Amino acid sequence: MAGGPRWPIGIAGAALVAAGAVLLPVPVLRVPAGLALVFALPGLAAIGPLRPRLSTMERIALVPLLSIAVPVVGGIGCYAAGVRLTTPVWVALTTIVTLALCGLHVGLGPRATRSAGRPADDPTTEDGGRPARRGPAGRWTARRALRVVLPAVLTIALLGGAGVVALRAARTGSVQHYTALSITPVGSAVALDRSVRVTVSCNESAPTGYTVRVTGADGYAAHRSVRLAPGHSRTWQLSVPAVGRVTARLYTGDGGTPYRSVFLAGG
Questions:
Q1: Is the keyword tRNA processing in the record (predicted)?
Q2: Phi-psi region of 219 (alpha: psi -120 to 50; beta: other; left: phi over 0)
Q3: Residue 227's domain spans which residues?
Q4: What single DSSP character describes residue 225?
C-alpha cells in the first residue's frame, strides 16, 4: 500500500480536525473546513486503496466527484428518514463516511499491496501480464476514460435526484393549511338587538371539527359546532345585543385555547 497506513490515518485526522472547525463559531475556520469535508476528504479516503492504480488525472477527477456524492446520497437518505438536515448532521455524515472509508483502507492494506504490483501507467503490460496494446500518444484508452466519465455521470444523476427531492419538498412545504374565522354585521341595529354573520372556512389538510363560541354584553353567549372538509365553509346568522362588543372564538377538537378569535365593536 503506497504510503503505508499513514495515508488513511492522515485523512482521518484531517476529517476530525475539519469537523471540529466547522462546529466552531469562527467563519475563517468553518468555511475552509466545510469545503474540505464536502469536496475533498471523503473522496481522498475513497480512492485510498486504488491510488496505485490511478493516474494523476484520474485522482483529480474522482476526488471531488466521490466527495460530493457523500452529502448528496446521505442527504437524500436523511430526508427520507425524516432527519432534519442541520450543520451537525452534515458534519457527522461526512466525517463518519470518511472515517469508515479510512478504516476500510487500513483493512484492505495488505491485499491492496499485493494487487498493486503494476503501476497504473505501465505501458508494457495489461492485467494478467499480457503485452499492452499501445494507442496513439497522448490519448486515453477506453478503460481509463470510462473510469473518469462513469463517476461523473453517477454524480450528475445523484445531483439530479437530490434536486427532484428538494423540489418536491419545497412544493409540499409551500402549501399552507389554515382555518379562517370572520364576523360581519348584517343590516343595521333594530330595537334592542342586531344581527351578525359568523363564518368558518376550512383549509386544513383533513376534515376538522370546530366549535364557535360567541359572547357579548349582558351575559350573551351562543355556541355552534360543525365538522368541515377541506375547502368547505359554514355561516351562521346570530342575533346579538345592540350595544357592546361581540367576540367570536373558534376552537378545534377538544382544545381549551382558541384557535382563532375575532370581535365586532359595539354600536
A1: no
A2: left
A3: 178-264
A4: E
**Full DSSP string of 124-167:** SB-GGGPBPPP-STTPPPHHHHHHHHHHHHHHHHHHHHHHHHHH
Q: Which three cell numbers stand for residue 259?
A: 384557535
d(CA 89, CA 86): 5
Residue 134 within a domain:
no
**Beta-strand pair 221-228/208-215:** antiparallel
φ, ψ at 254 (rounded to 5°) = -105, 20
Give ∠ CA 20-73-65 in degrees, rounded to 5: 80
Residue 233 sits in a domain whose CATH number is 2.60.40.10
Render each residue's pLDDT in the chain as its tens digit; 267 residues.
444 568 788 999 999 999 999 999 888 999 999 999 988 999 888 887 777 777 778 788 788 888 888 888 888 888 788 788 888 998 999 999 999 988 887 877 655 545 444 444 454 444 444 544 444 544 556 666 666 666 667 666 766 666 666 666 656 555 678 899 999 988 765 555 688 999 999 998 889 999 999 999 889 999 999 999 999 999 999 988 888 899 999 998 776 789 899 998 875
Which pTM was predicted? 0.46
Looking at the structure, tell me whether residues 148 and 198 fall in a common domain: no
Residue 187 sits in the same domain as residue 155: no
Q: Which residues pair with 252 in a beta bridge?
A: 210
